[in-house]
Structure formats: C-alpha cells, structure tokens
Amino acid sequence: MSKKHILPIVMAMGVATTIPQANAATTVTIGTVNNGDMVRMQSFTAEFEKSHPDIKLEWVVLEENVLRQRLTTDIATKGGQFDVMTIGMYEAPIWGKQGWLTPMDNLPADYDLEDIFPAVKGGLSADGTLYALPFYAESSMTYYRKDLFEQAGLSMPEQPTWDEVKGFAQTLHKPDEGQYGICLRGKAGWGENMALLTTMSNAFGARWFDENWKPEFNGAEWNNTVSFYVDLLGTYGPPGASSNGFNENLALFNSGKCAMWMDATVAGAFVTDKSQSNVADNVGFALAPKQVTTKGAGWLWSWALAIPQSSDAKDAAKTFTTWATSKEYSQLVAATSGIEKVPPGTRASTYANPEYMAAAPFAAKTLESMNKADANDSTLKPSPYVGVQFAAIPEFQSIATQVGKLVSGALAGSMTVDQALKSAQNITSREMKRARYYK
Question: N or C, which terminus of the chain has less Cβ within 10 Å?
Fold first, then answer.
C-alpha cells in the first residue's frame, strides 16, 4: 500500500468495512536548501495547495552541506524519503545517467522549455535528456561598497585581479570599526569553500586534474591559490571566517561589515533589498576576479528540482516542479515580492523584460557573468573534466569534501598550506587510483 494513500478500514465484529471518504491528498515531500529563494518558494505553499487541492506539500529545509548528504544517501539507497530533490548541475547528469532520476519530458506547452538558457538546460541534462528543472541559476561576481570605495578614492575595475582585490581589502580593512576588507566562503564543503577556491584556482592557472586525471595539488598554481586565499581572508576577513558559508557572509555584507564579497550572483536580490540590507543603496557589481587568466573565474550553477525514481508520487511531484519553475511562478513572485526578486538566471524572457532590467541593478552583470562561464573550457591548461567550480565525475563530491576540510583547516591555522595541499594530493590520488582513472 502506498505511503501516500492510506484508506481507513474499520474492523467491526470480524467484518472489514470501508468508510466512504473523499480522496486523500497526495503528499509531496520536498528536500531543499535554506537559501532565501527556496524559503520564499516555501512561503507560497498555501497558494499552490489552493490551486492544487489534491496535493499537500511537506518541506525538509536544510543547510547546504547537510542537504547534500541526506539527498545523496537517499538517492543511492533508493530510500524514497523525498519526492522532489533540490540538486544542481553536478548531480543531475550523474544521477540521471545512473537511472536514479525521472526524465523531465512531456512538459506542458506553456512551460516554454525553449525559454530556458541553453547552458542551464545542458548542465541539467545527460545524453540529451533533461533530468531537473532549474529553479534559479547563477554565476559568481564581485559585490563591493561603492560608498567606501569613493571615500577611499578607490575605483573598482569591470573585472579586478585578485591582486587588486587584496590591495582594496588592505585599504578598507578597519576591524576596530567593525569593517572588514573582504568576506569569502571559508566553511568546508565541496559546494561551499571549494566552489570559491576552484574558481580562484582557475584564475590562478590551476586545475583539479591533468589530461591523464592525475591531481595537481602539488603544483605551484594550487600553492599560489591557497596561500593567497589564506593570507587574504585570514588577514583582511572577519573573525571565524573558516565557519562562514554563503548565508553567513550574506548576513555580514548586509549588516555593513564587508567592504567586498565574491559570491553567487543570486545574492544580488538580497544585498539590494532594503528590507534586509543596511547597504542596499551602496552596492556595486563587478565580474568575479581574474588573475593570470579570465577562464573559469566565475562559476556556473543551477539549483534545480528533480524527481527521484524512488518517489511514489511522481505525477504530483511533476505538477509541483513544473509550477515552481514556471513563468507563472515568476509572475507570482513579481506580484507579491517585487519583480527584482523573481528567480534569476534561467529564462531569456526575464532578461528581455525592460521592467526587470530596470528594477534589478544586478541583472546586467548577472547575465554577463553567466554568459562568460563555460563549463567545457574553464581552465588555462586543458582538463579532462566538465565543470567550472566542480569536476563532473562521481568521485568529486567525496574528494572535494575532504579537500575542503583541509583548506578550512589551513585558514583556521590548524595546519599549514603545504600540509593541507600535501594531504589533498594524497587523498585525491588514492581515490582516483581506486576508481581506476589511472594506475
């Protein structure tokens, strides 16, 4: 008997009697991340259930690292705890190839799949089959305080170098006044600090693997990257930076404590929102920093909704995922929260709308950043993997999680950069040999 539809049976005098009742609503359990756009999606539960009385939504909202662990375990074991999973461009093609996800085909005509940016659609597909619908998509960019730059006589280039960023941070770092030169991700996680570190390493000319899948943490490029990162954030960042991820840095920036912040373009709607940002009128936008190259400087990602094959409510789940990623949903957000808060980065029609472009000061830079991100050409030297801030192989999640802990340890001062990179090289080499990428 399905967990979604349980018909009450009364046993009376040894006779089973079925009580007539209206059809029970199908429960759709959604596992999602605690980012602002997902919290907003959850707030429309009553709106969705009103127009879909046969479906009841249940939410499991988790911190990013915890969510990824829970979803990965559930999908691999066919646990069936979730009917909708919030995943991204890393998981969708890998899990789709494994047969773990339901193909997103036969979508309603008014969904307008052709309106989705090709790079986003491609990143959520495997062998031409779409396995997740994008809720929002993003690159990364530089946020900075225009007022502080002006007061200090500084000028932010369209795309600064990391060296220039360090100079700005040094000038603007005033910890005695509660003002820090820069905020960056320090929290360990393949999608937390390693997303930032990988784009930084791309800019420094590094890569995860050479053409023969051998890791390169023992090379000068990675040493330059991590040494620079630890010095920059350790010297000019806030206290406890090794514990800060996206949400923590967003709170710091919005409270006026960060002169600069390099992170996801999706934050644009939050840092310019006067209801939650103390610096909303003073935020400037630039491309993510370059160094020896511009390749892979800004990442490419989408938080998307997928339906696991283990779900026993696939039809209801598809109804929800289609609704939550539709033009109709964007119109709902625009009407209730403001057009500048519609989920960004997924639809061409959003950026073709003059009203949105006028209301969202971050929109043009978001679009430019996404257009520059190329998952198939993200490193200075040739690499065998697809992905900007990740390598699209099944082993990456485990490897990068371990490497992220080492880098966070170096930032916190519990080990040296050399020790962290030596361990990263050993761990990655062992895992890649075990997976038979090379002998």
Answer: C
Using only C-alpha atoms, what is the Rg of the chain? Answer: 23
In a domain, 400, yes or no: yes
The candidate with the shortest Cα–Cα distance to 401, out of 60, 69, 61, is 69
Q: Say yes or no: 219 and 231 in one domain.
A: yes
Total of domains in the chain = 2
Q: What is the domain extent for residue 331?
A: 9-138+300-359
Q: Which residue from 175, 136, 106 is spatially nearest to 33, judged by alpha carbons?
A: 136
Same domain, 151 and 67: no
CA nearest neighbour of 120 among 334, 299, 264: 299
Tokens 């915890």 -> residue: 66
* Confidence grade of residue 56 (pLDDT, cut at 50, 70, 90): very high
Confidence at residue 13, expressed as pLDDT on a 0 to 100 scale: 34
The answer on pLDDT for 1 being more than 70 is no
Per-residue pLDDT tens digits for 88-139: 999 999 999 999 999 999 999 899 999 999 999 999 999 999 999 999 999 9
Say if residue 305 is in the same domain as residue 241: no
165: in domain: yes
With vertex at residue 323, the alpha carbon angle to CA 322 and CA 328, rounded to the nearest 5 degrees, is 125
Q: Residue 247 is part of a domain; what is its CATH number?
A: 3.40.190.10
**Cβ contact 145:283 at 8 Å:** yes
- Computed over every residue of the chain, the mean pLDDT equals 94
Contact of 186 with 411, CB cutoff 8 Å: yes
Exposure of 157 in the CB half-sphere (CA atoms within 13 A) = 12
* Mean pLDDT value of segment 76-86: 96
Q: Are residues 315 and 389 in the same domain?
A: no
**Do 278 and 254 touch, CB atoms closer than 8 A?**
yes
| Residue pLDDT, tens place only, 329-373 | 999 999 999 999 999 999 999 999 999 999 999 999 999 999 999
Domain termination residue (choose one: 359, 390, 406): 359
